[in-house]
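Quick board copy: two proteins, each given as sequence then tokens.
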Amino acid sequence: MPSAVLIFASALFLAAAAPLSAPDLEKGWKIYVAACQVCHGEKGDGQTFVANVLNPPPRNFTSPASKKELTLERMLRSVTRGRPGTAMMPWKENLTAGEIRAAVAFIRREFMELRE
């Protein structure tokens, strides 16, 4: 079991290190719309109907605090494993490591305005 975790973590790290192409960003956008937008909103600001019923509310990716607190590694881990105490579910059973990377990269570039 520990070796499986190590292999998965290594795959995430290697995927995170590769530069993004336009198709990767488009893939990330499609995944965001299908899996993330319902909670995090069309603009990534967490302003959705769902936000009114979740405690804590979904993360606002456009806030200065998010830009400061959310490292690439933390975001990959949060999407992969979920966030205890929140409605953020783990996506590792529904998305591949590459799909998770694409969605996170889209969020970081488009909503957090980070150029990595």
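And the next:
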Amino acid sequence: MDIDTVSYVFQGPDGTFTIKPRLSRRWRVKRDSAPWGDSFATAEAAAGELSKHFAVPADIAEWTEVGDFHTDVGGFHL
């Protein structure tokens, strides 16, 4: 089983933030499950922009990676 995509999650005082890849290969940000801002060229760019507005780290390495896997019976999240 291989990782298809990796998303990033950070939970802090301003909410739960998720940075996920889109089919367009750009990265989308959600704050508490609601879309936030525009799409970004990289996950690093998204984290950097978020850090200007909220108490989140600008370094994507400080975020939690969440792997999305695909199997012959469908996808699932770890």
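Board note added afterward: Residues 3-77 form one domain.
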